[in-house]
Design a protein that fits this description.
Helix 1 runs antiparallel to helix 3, helix 6 packs parallel to helix 10 and helix 10 packs antiparallel against helix 11. The protein has one domain. The protein has a two-stranded antiparallel ribbon. Helices cover 76% and strands 1% of the residues. It is mainly alpha-helical and 300 residues long. The chain contains 13 helices and 2 strands.
C-alpha cells in the first residue's frame, strides 16, 4: 500500500489526520489565521479543548492500533515535534499581533506533546498527557487575556501599547502569571509537563535497548524553552513597562479588570497552581494507564 507495509501506511495516514488537528508543522498553517479571525470564546474553546483532540486521537488510535508503525516512525514523529517547538517559537517571536503570538506559542507547546509521545518512555508519555491538560488551562487564559485588551481598544498590535502596568495593575498581574506559566516557570503546571517530556525524551535513547530518540532532540527542545521565555518576556517589556501609551483609543478610557473578569481568571489560576505544586494529583490518575500504554507499544 503506497509502497509500504499496509500497517505502516495506515499509521502514517492516521498520523497525518490527527497531526492537522494538533497542529504539527507543516500542517499548522490553518491555526494562526483561525485564531486571529475567531472571536475570543471560540479561540478559548479551540485552544483549550479542540487541539487536544488531535493528541488524544494519536494516543488512542494511531499508536494503539499500529504500535509497530509507532516504533518504526518514532524518530520522524519526534523530529516533527522538535521542528514544531522551534518553528512555532521563532514565529511567536516575530509576531506583532498578540493573538497570533499566542497561536504560534500553542504550535510550539503542542510540539512537546509530540516529542513526549514519540519517546515511548513512561516519563515522556506522562509529560505529553500532562502538557495537553496544562496547556488547555493556560492557553484558554492567554486568549482571554488577548480578548480583554481587544474589548477595550479593538486593537491587538503589541507595538500600539506601552506602560499598561500603571493603568491596569490587576490585568498586568494576570498576564505575568499566565505568561510565566506558559514559559514553564517552576511552580506552574507548564514546568511539570515540560520537564517530564524532556526527561522522557532524554531517557528514550536507551528505552528497551533500542534507542528510540537521539539526545540532540532533547537539547534542541530545551532551546525552544529559551525562545518561549524570550518572546513572553519581550512582550511584557513592550506592552506593560515604560511610558504609558495606547495608540488606538484615548489613554484615559482604558480601565482595569472588573469583578466579572477577575472571577473568570481565578479558577484557571487555581488549576495551573495546583497542577504545578501537586503533580501527583494528575500523575497518580494516569500512571497505570501510561505504563500499560508503553508496555503495549514496546512489547508488540
Amino acid at each position: 500500500m503506497l509502497g509500504l507495509p499496509a500497517r505502516f501506511a495506515g499509521f502514517l495516514l492516521l498520523f497525518a489526520g490527527f497531526a492537522i488537528k494538533v497542529p504539527v508543522v507543516p500542517f499548522h498553517t490553518w491555526l494562526p489565521d483561525a485564531h486571529v479571525e475567531a472571536p475570543t470564546p471560540i479561540s478559548v474553546i479551540l485552544a483549550g479543548v479542540l487541539l487536544k483532540i488531535g493528541g488524544y486521537g494519536l494516543f488512542r488510535t494511531a499508536y494503539l492500533i499500529f504500535p509497530d508503525g509507532a516504533i518504526n516512525y518514532a524518530w520522524w514523529v519526534g523530529c516533527l515535534g522538535v521542528i514544531s517547538i522551534i518553528y512555532g517559537a521563532f514565529n511567536a517571536l516575530a509576531s506583532k499581533d498578540l493573538k497570533r503570538l499566542i497561536a504560534f506559542s500553542s504550535v510550539s507547546h503542542m510540539g512537546f506533546v509530540l516529542l513526549g509521545l514519540a519517546a515511548l518512555s513512561v516519563e515522556g508519555v506522562s509529560g505529553a498527557i500532562y502538557q495537553m491538560i496544562s496547556h488547555g488551562f493556560i492557553s484558554a487564559a492567554l486568549f482571554l487575556i488577548a480578548g480583554v485588551i481587544y474589548d477595550r481598544t479593538a486593537d491587538r498590535l503589541i507595538e500600539n501599547y506601552s506602560g499598561l502596568a500603571s493603568q491596569m495593575p490587576k490585568y498586568t498581574v494576570i498576564v505575568v502569571i499566565f505568561f510565566f506559566a506558559s514559559l514553564g516557570l517552576p511552580g506552574f503546571s507548564g514546568f511539570i509537563a515540560e520537564i517530564l517530556v524532556l526527561l522522557g525524551s532524554f531517557a528514550s535513547a536507551v528505552v528497551a535497548g533500542i534507542g528510540i530518540l537521539p539526545r540532540w532532540m532533547t537539547l534542541t527542545a530545551v532551546f525552544g524553552l529559551v525562545l518561549s521565555a524570550a518572546y513572553y518576556l519581550w512582550t511584557i517589556q513592550r506592552m506593560f513597562f515604560g511610558k504609558y501609551h495606547v495608540k488606538s483609543v484615548p489613554t484615559e478610557s482604558i480601565i482595569d479588570l472588573n469583578r466579572k473578569e477577575l472571577l473568570m481568571f481565578i479558577p484557571l489560576i487555581i488549576f495551573v497552581l495546583v497542577l504545578g505544586i501537586f503533580p501527583s494529583v494528575l500523575l497518580d490518575l494516569i500512571n497505570n494507564s501510561v505504563v500499560t500504554f508503553v508496555d503495549t507499544i514496546l512489547n508488540f
